[in-house]
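Marked as duplicate of an earlier ticket. Keeping the data here for the record.
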Amino acid sequence: MKTTFKAAIAALALTTTAAQASTIVEIAAADERFSTLVAAVGAAGLADALSGPGPFTVYAPINDAFAALPDGTVETLLKPENKDQLTNVLLYHVDDRKLSADMIPTGSTYFKPMLTSERLCITANGEGVKIADGSGEMANVVIADIQADNGVIHVIDKVLLPGNRPDCH
């Protein structure tokens, strides 16, 4: 009984902390599922910018999404000499507006991320929200609408990669 009570208190503490005013970076840093993303944001020097007033929408890949990349990809991107490439990949995951899930129109729509030379194709339907990237592959939004003071986080199961403009039909 005591253990259950402690677990309930711990869960309540986590919920309360998340419900308090926090930036996107603070929320991600407090969640172990985003440790690779947080390390990448730090290596790219984007933590201060993403802690700013925003608004931002971040399509946040979980650690498993980074682990699914070809061997050595994450390590290569985290090297100081690859900071520009890492920054581009990360900015491909950020929109400079606050887009909650209910603001994404039904069907397929192009969205311009902060990496302005690229586009994402976001498809919303009764099955959920999917994001096509420059590799032609789809990421699934697995958790939508984590609210932050400076925007919103949508958790995705794939790292979005720039490349060819995705087909949005």
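See parent ticket for discussion. The CA atoms of residues 50 and 165 lie 25 Å apart.
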